[in-house]
Design brief:
homodimer; alpha/beta; about 15% strand; about 50% helix; 9 strands; N-(1-d-carboxylethyl)-l-norvaline Dehydrogenase, domain 2; 3-stranded mixed β-sheet
């Protein structure tokens, strides 16, 4: 069985690492804030002092940290994974970061005869806890096949999206879809309310047909009931939308609807609502009226 | 059994009238273009020379025509339904028109002791043919109960949305949802393609989760395969979006995302694509890049 190194024990990483231990994998973990590693030790894992030390003791090293610079830091920075890697090992980055940064890192690792997979996830902390994540993988099919048992311990669906970076690109498409569809729900709910229509009745009447979406069925009623607890936090969504817009900039691609949602979320952040769920987009839509 | 009058045998009205005949209702029909009534006569129905004559011979009169002025014309205009109505009969308007025009007509009919229901539908011509329409009803619950067997002969779901006009308002919410969600799909598909990602893989990887929608599952692959045959035609969608924007204007309500989709559809129309399906929105999104 492959020995696993795990770097990043945040809200997603910790339950994912615990699921790997539960599935019987040997696991050594590193986290910048050290006390987060205690839960891993209690579950039978080991503690690494640096990403380098984690890499030295592993065949497959998983990273799941906040943003592109954090991934560069733990893989390529001082005491980074790259300095401990054995030839033939694999690095799987499960963070959501820039597709082009991903390709750069993959190239540098290839020079060391190490394969990389980008494998961002959707499904939130609930999916991480229940091992029901959707995993979008970029990299070689062979490497994916080798890592499949690891993915299957953390998620319920694993899609091979293409070469390095394509997992990240698929994740960014996912974020375009959730954000602009959320906008659709917000404008429909507000139009209903301003018209004197019971917006919950509207959601029920429309969600089964061509207007239907996960966002409508799940976030529509929360908007109506003014339940803005996260789900997925606006501050985190904004990081992902910035990644989309940076990638679109590199491609010289205008995305006006997505950009507009990004601006409305800035209105949420400016109003102290950045820690609320993405359905609080409704508040910004409402502020315009 | 109630005797039914039917005004408007277009792409939706004709199959709906035929389903009423199939369910055993007596039916007399009027259409501006007379030869469209032949199909009704062949199926055992009768022909009325004017909307007034249809109303004289019916208990329940259904209208399904193009737009607000057409409904005003067939109900209130020369030889209109209002001049043939018996006290206690019901007018059901199944067109998609302005909620405020609907309320005005309902008020005028109420003066004649005639109840009105607004009952626009979604589900397209396929839903009309197969009697699987979703019907969104505004008006009194009692009148809806009286008309329920008629609705059930034409649709599979009947929702009471509130007082007169609320059926229309619900339909307009439906059109906000389908249009802005369509926009989400178009930007995601284009971002995928410009990034070198197989967009069909992207649709498959995302449609089961929080990004999922009817529009993504059904129109996403059509965009990728450049299949722009209607489904629902842009020219018809534009009429409905104009109704949304007119109603929003009356409410002093900004709907920037919906307005933007309306403008992009204008680009489709300016490029001779008005008879294509709404998924051709993708062409306008692409034209920007």
């Amino acid at each position: 069985m492959e020995k696993i190194g795990f770097v990043g024990l945040g809200i997603m990483g910790k339950p994912m690492a615990l699921n790997l231990l539960k599935a019987g994998f040997d696991l050594i973990a590193y986290n910048r804030t050290e006390d987060k590693v205690d839960a891993i030790i209690n579950a039978g894992g080991k503690k690494g002092k640096t990403p380098k030390e984690v890499a030295e003791q592993s065949d497959i090293i998983i990273t799941i940290v906040s943003d592109s610079p954090d991934v560069e830091e733990v893989i390529l920075g001082e005491n980074g994974i790259v300095f401990g890697l054995k030839e033939g090992s694999v690095v799987i980055d499960m963070s959501t970061i820039s597709p082009s940064v991903t390709r750069n890192i993959a190239e540098k690792l290839r020079d060391k005869k190490v394969e990389m997979l980008d494998a961002p996830v959707s499904g939130g902390d609930v999916g991480a806890i229940n091992a029901t994540l959707s995993i979008m993988v970029g990299g070689s099919q062979n490497t994916l096949n080798r890592c499949r048992p690891i993915f299957e311990a953390m998620g319920k669906s694993v899609t091979h999206c293409g070469t390095n970076g394509m997992g990240q690109t698929t994740k960014l498409c996912n974020q375009i879809l959730v954000s602009v569809t959320n906008m659709a729900v917000g404008e429909a709910v507000l139009f209903a309310q301003k018209s004197g229509l019971n917006a919950l009745t509207m959601v029920e009447a429309t969600k089964g047909g061509a207007a239907g979406s996960w966002q409508l069925a799940n976030l529509g009623p929360k908007m109506v009931n003014e339940d803005f607890a996260p789900g997925f936090m606006i501050d985190l969504q904004q990081k992902d939308l910035r990644l989309v817009l940076d990638a679109a900039e590199e491609l010289h691609l205008p995305l006006p609807a997505l950009s507009y949602v990004h601006q409305l979320y800035k209105s949420n952040q400016a109003n102290g609502e950045g820690k609320e769920g993405t359905q609080a987009l409704f508040k910004s839509i409402k502020r315009l009226s």
